[in-house]
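Action item from last meeting closed. Structure (211 res):
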């Protein structure tokens, strides 16, 4: 999605602020869409890569409420802006995932830097989601036996031990292991272990230990 021009969504109930921010964003080469309320923005279907410039004080839902409602959109980082900020509110916003909390009047260079950082994060989240989708597809393509072999292999079992656990020969284990490595597109055991960690593939005995 690197060829898609990112969109900066701006939510503020001050028309003058909306217009000036929209012009600033567009002058930097990004697309911009502006909204006068949280509900108006939430009714819009958001396209990524993107980020959200969100005023704290809005006429309907406040900025923190809107942030909660889009918390599952990790590909849309939030930049808060406000004319009346306080430490407690700033902490709440940052703990909830906001990447920046800026006080009006806004400095153009500071805001543009925050937007650039937010859009970089948006691109990274999109890439990560695509990688996880591909990884889950690879794992789903494994047969049940191949998944069993993978689970035991990443736990550190040798082929002979895997065969003993599953009641199959070491030669059969090697055959399943080879197919499993190819389907997972893993070039080495350490790479496979990292894949298993991302997929949360945990051997049964490890689950018992964690209980």
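Sequence:
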């Amino acid at each position: 999605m690197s060829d898609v021009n990112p969109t900066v969504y701006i939510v503020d109930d001050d028309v003058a602020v909306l217009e000036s921010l929209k012009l600033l964003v567009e002058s930097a080469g990004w697309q911009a869409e502006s909204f006068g309320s949280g509900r108006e923005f939430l009714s819009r279907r958001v396209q990524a890569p993107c980020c959200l410039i969100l005023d704290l004080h809005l006429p309907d839902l406040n900025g923190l409420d809107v942030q909660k409602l889009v918390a599952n959109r990790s590909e849309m980082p939030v930049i808060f802006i406000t004319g009346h900020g306080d430490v407690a509110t700033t902490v709440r916003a940052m703990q909830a995932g906001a990447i920046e909390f800026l006080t009006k009047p806004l400095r153009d260079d500071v805001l543009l830097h925050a937007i650039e950082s937010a859009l970089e994060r948006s691109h990274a989240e999109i890439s990560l989601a695509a990688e996880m989708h591909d990884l889950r597809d690879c794992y789903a393509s494994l047969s049940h036996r191949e998944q069993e072999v993978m689970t035991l292999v990443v736990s550190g079992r040798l082929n002979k031990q895997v065969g003993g656990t599953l009641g199959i020969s070491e030669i059969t284990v090697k055959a399943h292991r080879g197919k499993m490595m190819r389907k997972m597109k893993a070039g080495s055991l350490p790479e496979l272990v990292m894949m298993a960690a991302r997929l949360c593939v945990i051997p049964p005995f490890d689950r018992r230990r964690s209980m």
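Note appended to the action item: The beta strands are 7-11, 31-35, 50-55, 78-82, 100-103.
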